[in-house]
Design a protein that fits this description.
Layout lengths: L19 H20 L7 H8 L3 H7 L3 H26 L13
């Protein structure tokens, strides 16, 4: 699936969160995945360890992700989205159009 902006493909989730509670759980899972990847290698990462760190049942992890690769891809995509948002805000604050890379004063 291609991102809404036509850019980076969005990794498919097994199930998209509908309620705020589900979205928060997904966020905790991705946060836990990020924390663990700071501590151990990808090879040592496990869905069980992520579930434990996030404080959710293992079934919650598998509700969203088919395996650890899908989870790591979703984390990478989230990080790219957050980075792009920060860059867009900085460009807007400096008067540069993110779409053109040209100063609004030019």
């Amino acid at each position: 699936m291609i991102g809404q902006d036509g850019g980076v493909p969005i990794p498919p989730l097994r199930r998209n969160p509908v309620q705020r509670r589900s979205a928060e759980r997904l966020g905790r899972i991705l946060d836990a995945c990020a924390e663990l990847l700071d501590e151990v290698s990808y090879e040592e990462l496990s869905t069980r360890a992520v579930a434990e760190r996030a404080g959710v049942p293992i079934g919650s992890v598998y509700r969203f992700f088919s395996n650890k690769r899908a989870m790591a891809e979703a984390l990478a995509h989230r990080n790219l989205d957050e980075y792009a948002e920060r860059i867009t805000r900085r460009l807007a604050a400096s008067g540069v159009s993110a779409a053109s890379g040209v100063s609004a004063a030019s």
